[in-house]
Amino acid sequence: LTASFALMASTSPEGAGSVLVDVVLSGTAPADVTVPLVLTGTAQAGGVDVAVTPAPLVIGAGQTGGQFSVALTPDALYEDDETLVMTFGALTGADPGAIVEHTLTVENDDPLPVVEFTQYRTVVNEIEGGFDVRLVLDAPSGLDVTVPFTVTGDASGAGDVTLPPSPAVVPAGDAFVDLPVTLVVDRIPELAERIVFTLGPP
Question: What's the pLDDT tens digit per position in 24-53?
Fold first, then answer.
């Protein structure tokens, strides 16, 4: 008697709630068959990303198969697709069959975050020495968000300001990043100067 996964792989959106993974026997079990699992992959088990039950699966005498239930935990984070690799441990009551590993791909179904400045304009006095320009996301991301930007205006040169490098990076899990601008205090009477930040596609 052998035990095997019915399929080598399956796919589900993160918001599906749960997925069933079938284990089939080559015949009718004369006694209980116990199927433990070893879990690997990028999806974290224990309810963080997924939770697998039962652990182990017991296929009762007289049955020809059973199912693992994989509960999917939605996280509202844009992220890469994740994988759960389920591999048979040491079986009791049956030998390993043709497919002893099943890979479940959990597809991200959260939208890309939107990035913008918190303010349309900032007015500062040169003597203040500097200020921060804040970029915010409408929701944290599970991945680093890289945002290129350009700087124009009549105060964008090295003699007037020290500018942050482009691109800006909002780290995974964070909702904002501050771009520091240092002003050169030249004590020369002059008209007001402008620094214009323009975002490129993230």
Answer: 999 999 999 999 999 999 998 888 899 999
| Whole-number Cα distances in Å, 45 to 38, 113, 136, 186, 190 | 11, 26, 31, 58, 62
Best CA proximity match to 59, nearest among 8, 4, 9, 17: 4
User: CA-to-CA distance for 13 and 18, rounded, in angstroms?
Assistant: 10
Strand partners, 38: 87
104 to 9, 71, 82, 91, 134: CA distances (angstroms): 6, 12, 8, 21, 39
Report pLDDT digits (tens) over 60-111: 999 999 999 999 998 888 999 999 999 999 999 999 999 999 999 999 999 9
Closest CA to 1 of 88, 91, 67: 91
153 vs 165, 189, 196, CA distance in Å? 16, 18, 5
